[in-house]
Q: What sequence folds into this?
């Protein structure tokens, strides 16, 4: 119980930090005098109040976090912050006289924070800018990690910070540090993230987006989220330069940010070659894009090969990097294309990026492990350690990857069955689970790129919300809380 | 400060543990990933797997912008090469190496810019041996630490039943010791500090912490206990590096020394190395038959110095039970050391603590020149130099009563040239005084360090 309270103490502080980010939309609402002003003013005060109350109420229990508290904290934060994030949405819709249900508001907030990008809202074009900006801000913060942010700016976590960052950062090997102290590493990651975001913002401006839309799309591009300010997404802009900017920055955000940091520090692009994930990631995403484009051209969806390339590439990159932008309703394409894209999204992005899914490094490890097995079948005496980036991988990492894959497969199966149970079409159910657990966003059919998730029942929405949460935290972090060992004294 | 530590063995680990803080960015290099994982999971530092004498590894560890390089791997030669590379290729401003072999310390020309570029040598074996030797010399003392190049000692000793101090308040000390410059800092009862004032009455069995002019130390300590028989017969269990050094030193000073070693080959080596008057015994320190046969009951001091904490604890408890007058055990793990506080083991010596005191002297910049932990951390004693003048320093030109010391801290002594001043509230601190400060806990040390910092206008 004492441990739980100590975790809540950090949660309270994290809540206050998170609430401070509401100042961005609040400022925009204040300057632009839009309809979101009361919602954000009240939402901000409520969120700060709740955070401060949780912090003050558990102050006496403050203590150093242990390894297992790290898991608990991460899950509590990721399940709890969407409650705060949903406050402005609830308040705004309530004030506008068309109340949003709690289920939908929580789903929208979870979708933003996990940088999924699936929405239950319609009429985005007519929402106050502050509301759209808040959706984008959630994606941006959630992409790199709210607790990584807390560790970077709050010195309180100390050694516990190491556990927390480990539990929140995706990927199987997390002992790599950019700087000796964990707070320094967190700061370095955020510095690269902020720097690239600024470049992205200016690039969107340069191709003609107004400041507000450039800002909102920068946030959802860098976080690989995919929320748009328009119901039609990129179809609304219908501009090749805008799509090119989006493609470049989606591809960059799918690379490990530690690799970006190393490349910047060494002022040398060799860091990208040295990173074991970057080249395979780019090859898979771009290769997938070419295959989809060729398929679209061959099937006669687009008569012009350049048009096939434009739509094939943009949508494949968007889905494979788990962003979820669309410049055409690809759900109407022949099934092979959207299904290939969804499958790519399951594994293409690098560990340490803002993308979701299994992560490229796990796939590389599995392929190498399989090859080692084949070699030992032919040469029973061969010693075949699995190496990545020139270093031998600890067998414990390999077995954790295998366990992850097993749990991933099980989770997809169980969640799909739950959706089937609720009466959903099998293909749509599968696409929904894939889109949620990989934090991609759009699925197929009614929940496709031009649709929205409000058509689902409440039960289905909650299944999807849970899938997003466990997908963002890479399954095991959440599932460990459901084991009796965790709670045993 | 950016610190690079090479080697995550016993010494490297305790160095890292002691230096890790908000102010220090620490990177540890070691070939063993398991040892690094242990450190990384417990402390906020970075581990890097590799050989610290490889240029590429040092480069990856960020040697180029490191302020301090500490080489404490198990190999002397690797440590020396590491320091050389750190200096010549990466221009690391300060380099400290752990060196075991006493021969190297005798040739300072090897360590200079022409040689291996080592600023300071630390030798855990030497520090521990020196410390153990001082304990044998002062049979009444539980701990002896020296400040100001040995001119001032801080001694902890237990008050005996026949002591003239027993049942008297502290401020009557002057009458007991008319011509000794010594002062009682605190009294520990049952391992806890009493925060003694001048009226506190000392009871037999209390541990008294004294700050004393080293020249008077022996006389002062004698007063605390009924005159002890001087030490003649010493038995050592464990013929490792420390055991060997200590036995050799004691034998040269005509003590009667017996040394027990488990490994037969090592016994042969010891017998060949040590003077003929040392008796080398092949056996186990936990073997009571062996101890009895070798007249353990007549021993003045028994020291358990093997590399195994549990063995040392057991064999010294056994020796005490069998009648050894005083037993001293080497205990590495801090938890065990605290556990043995107040047990039948008279003194638990922590090798890492001895090393750390030596290392911290080199690591600390500026004005604090030495730090020692007293009796497993009940207090810290530090020596700081007062620089500057009344306008630039918070200390110089002020009386002791005026200083803004943290709560519970006190000034034990001032060393002014050759003179040792035991200050009262009206004593004025002068420039270049060495000030011995006692603080009740480690958390307060930064405040004392800050107090002694000279403000920027001094330069």
A:
């Amino acid at each position: 119980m004492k441990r739980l309270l100590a975790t809540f103490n950090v949660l309270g502080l994290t809540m206050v930090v998170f609430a401070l980010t509401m100042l961005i939309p609040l400022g925009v609402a204040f300057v632009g005098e839009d309809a979101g002003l009361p919602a954000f003013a009240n939402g901000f005060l409520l969120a700060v109040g709740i955070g401060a109350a949780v912090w003050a109420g558990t102050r006496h229990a403050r203590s150093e976090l242990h390894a297992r508290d790290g898991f608990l904290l991460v899950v509590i934060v990721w399940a709890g912050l969407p409650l705060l994030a949903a406050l402005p949405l609830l308040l705004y819709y309530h004030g506008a006289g068309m109340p949003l249900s709690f289920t939908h508001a929580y789903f929208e907030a979870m979708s933003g924070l996990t940088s999924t990008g699936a929405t239950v809202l319609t009429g985005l074009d007519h929402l106050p800018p502050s509301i759209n900006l808040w959706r984008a801000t959630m994606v941006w913060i959630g992409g790199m990690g709210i607790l990584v942010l807390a560790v970077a700016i709050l010195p309180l976590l100390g050694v516990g910070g190491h556990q927390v960052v480990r539990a929140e950062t995706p990927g199987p090997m997390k002992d790599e540090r950019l700087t000796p102290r964990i707070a320094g590493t967190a700061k370095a990651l955020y510095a690269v993230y902020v720097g690239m975001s600024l470049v992205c913002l200016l690039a969107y401006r340069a191709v003609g987006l107004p400041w507000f839309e450039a800002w909102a799309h920068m946030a959802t591009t860098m976080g690989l989220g995919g929320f748009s300010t328009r119901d039609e997404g990129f179809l609304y802009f219908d501009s090749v330069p805008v799509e090119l900017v989006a493609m470049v920055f989606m591809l960059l955000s799918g690379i490990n940010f530690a690799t970006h940091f190393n490349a910047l520090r060494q002022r040398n692009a060799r860091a990208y070659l040295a990173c074991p994930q970057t080249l395979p990631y780019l090859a898979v995403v771009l290769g997938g894009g070419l295959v989809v484009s060729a398929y679209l051209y061959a099937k006669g969806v687009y008569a012009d090969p350049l048009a096939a390339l434009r739509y094939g590439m943009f949508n494949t990159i968007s889905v494979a990097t788990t962003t979820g932008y669309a410049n055409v309703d690809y759900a109407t394409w022949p099934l092979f294309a959207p299904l290939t894209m969804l499958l790519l999204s399951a594994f293409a992005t690098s560990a340490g990026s803002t993308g979701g899914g299994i992560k490229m490094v796990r796939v590389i490890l599995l392929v190498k492990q399989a090859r080692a097995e084949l070699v030992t079948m032919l040469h029973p005496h061969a010693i075949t350690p699995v190496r990545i980036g020139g270093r031998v991988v600890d067998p414990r990492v390999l077995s954790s990857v295998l366990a992850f894959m097993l749990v991933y497969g099980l989770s997809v199966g169980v969640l799909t069955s739950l959706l089937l149970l609720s009466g959903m079409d099998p293909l749509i159910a599968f696409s929904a689970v894939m889109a949620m657990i990989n934090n991609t966003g759009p699925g197929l059919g009614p929940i496709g790129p031009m649709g929205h998730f409000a058509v689902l029942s409440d039960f289905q929405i909650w299944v999807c919300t849970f899938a997003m949460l466990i997908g963002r935290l890479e399954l095991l972090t959440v599932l460990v809380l459901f084991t009796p060992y965790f709670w045993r004294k | 400060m950016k610190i690079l530590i090479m080697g995550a063995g016993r010494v490297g680990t305790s160095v890292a543990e002691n230096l890790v803080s908000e102010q220090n960015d620490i990177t540890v290099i070691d070939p063993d990933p398991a040892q690094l994982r242990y450190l990384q999971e417990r402390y906020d530092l970075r581990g890097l797997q590799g050989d610290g004498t490889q240029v590429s590894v040092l480069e990856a560890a960020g040697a180029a912008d490191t302020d301090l390089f500490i080489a404490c791997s198990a190999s002397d030669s690797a440590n020396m090469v590491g320091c050389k590379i750190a200096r010549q290729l990466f221009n690391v401003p300060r380099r400290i190496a752990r060196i075991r072999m006493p021969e190297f310390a005798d040739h300072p020309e090897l360590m200079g810019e022409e040689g291996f570029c080592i600023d300071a040598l630390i030798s855990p074996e030497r520090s521990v041996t020196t410390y153990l030797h001082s304990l044998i010399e002062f049979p009444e003392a539980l701990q002896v630490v020296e400040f100001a190049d040995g001119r001032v000692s801080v001694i902890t000793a237990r008050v005996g039943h026949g002591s003239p101090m027993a049942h008297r308040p502290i401020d009557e000390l002057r009458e007991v010791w008319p011509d000794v410059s010594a002062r009682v800092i605190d009294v520990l009862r049952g391992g806890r500090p009493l925060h003694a004032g001048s009226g506190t009455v000392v009871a037999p069995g209390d541990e008294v912490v004294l700050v004393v002019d080293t020249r008077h130390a022996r006389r002062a300590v004698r007063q605390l206990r009924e005159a002890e028989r001087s030490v003649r017969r010493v038995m050592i269990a464990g013929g490792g590096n420390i055991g060997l050094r200590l036995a050799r030193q004691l034998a040269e000073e005509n003590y009667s020394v017996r040394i027990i070693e488990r490994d037969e080959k090592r016994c042969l080596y010891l017998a060949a190395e040590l003077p003929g008057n040392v008796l080398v015994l092949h056996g186990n320190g936990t073997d009571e038959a062996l101890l009895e046969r070798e007249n353990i009951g007549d021993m003045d001091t028994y020291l358990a110095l093997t590399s195994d904490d549990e063995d040392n604890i057991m064999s010294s408890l056994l020796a005490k039970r069998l009648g050894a007058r005083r037993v001293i055990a080497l205990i590495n793990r801090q938890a065990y050391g605290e556990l043995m506080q107040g047990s039948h083991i008279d003194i638990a010596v922590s090798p890492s603590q001895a090393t750390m005191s030596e290392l911290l002297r080199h690591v600390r910049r500026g004005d604090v020149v030495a730090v020692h932990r007293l009796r497993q951390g009940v207090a810290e004693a530090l020596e700081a130099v007062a620089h500057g003048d009344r306008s630039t320093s918070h200390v110089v030109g002020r009386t002791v009563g005026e200083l803004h010391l943290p709560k519970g801290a006190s000034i034990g002594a001032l060393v002014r040239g050759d003179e040792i001043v035991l200050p009262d509230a009206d004593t004025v601190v002068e420039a270049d005084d060495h000030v011995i400060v006692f603080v009740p806990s480690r958390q307060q040390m930064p405040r004392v360090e800050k107090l002694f910092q000279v403000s920027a206008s001094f330069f």
Q: What stands out?
A: Chain A touches chain B at residues 67, 155, 158-159, 161-162, 175, 177, 179-184, 391, 394 (CB under 8 Å). Chain A is about 65% helix and 0% strand. Chain A has a mean pLDDT of 89.
